[in-house]
Design a protein that fits this description.
With 300 residues, the chain is α/β, with parallel strands linked by helices. The chain contains 14 helices and 5 strands. Bound molecules: adenosine-5'-triphosphate and magnesium ion.
Length: 300
Amino acid sequence: MYSASKISEQFRVSRDKKFALSQFLTSWNGYQALESSSNKKLKKASKKFLKQNLKQLKAAQELLWASNRQSLLLIFQAMDAAGKDSTIKHVMSGVNPQGVSVHSFKQPSSEELEHNFLWRYWARVPSRGKIGIFNRSYYEEVLVVKVHPEILDSRPIPYGLRGDEFWDARYEDINAMERHLCRSGTVILKFFLNVSKEEQKRRFMERLNNPEKHWKFSESDVKERQHWDQYMSAFEDAISATNTEWAPWYVIPADDKWKMRGIVSAIVTEEIQKLNLEYPEVSEAQREVLTQAKEDLQNE
Ligand code: ATP
Ligand code: MG
């Protein structure tokens, strides 16, 4: 019904014009034929779209794994309750778990703070053939830390410049790290799940009103919400400064979770397919070994 192709292009942040979050919608009207129909139908169609993509993604991941040349790093950043966890869960639901690793990054530990700000992430980038998922990432270092610069005061880092120069240096370091990863065979896709402030409120209220969802609620979520505008501005700065040719950003409308999952799965699939990977070629010598093994088994 929907074509997954070109979805990637549609949501990739352009490097040709100045980036502003206001250019991006938090809901998507791409399914025009369906927009006027009921929510139930829309959900059903979105699920179908996701299912189609997952089938292709499964095949694409197998090829990534078998060819063992490249890896894929998916980075998810968003405001609270935008749906990072459930997107990761759904989009990866059909793939071979041995080929995927997911890391959720919380506040750094004291050991992690003894090292440079990229250290703990370096250790977790995916090895060849694998898909690595970062649920939050080093981008927190230019998002939450930029919104609350007092965090830096409690960190054992050298005294020196703060302010714009400090953040520009961090963007530069991130770009350099990503460039190195890209050159070494890691394809990096960065997703900002773009939820609206109203939808976030609705989801928080749902968590508060539903006892089964109370565990999901955290007092700090509401506190951080008060800094919404500062976060948006930090996202805008970070995305503008790090939307490179080798590690593009995608801004995904997140007000409708099913559509969001469909879009993310389409982009991941499309980008793996673009790599034109191939199953490893079997050499003449290996072929002989296989024939011999078959013969030995038959004659057992
Ligand atoms: P969930 O709420 O669904 O469990 P979450 O990712 O929001 O997932 P929390 O434990 O609620 O997890 O929050 C983790 C917190 O850690 C976030 O507020 C995030 O900003 C913070 N954090 C992550 N990385 C860093 C970092 N490098 N420096 C400072 N804070 C960080
Ligand atoms: Mg949280």
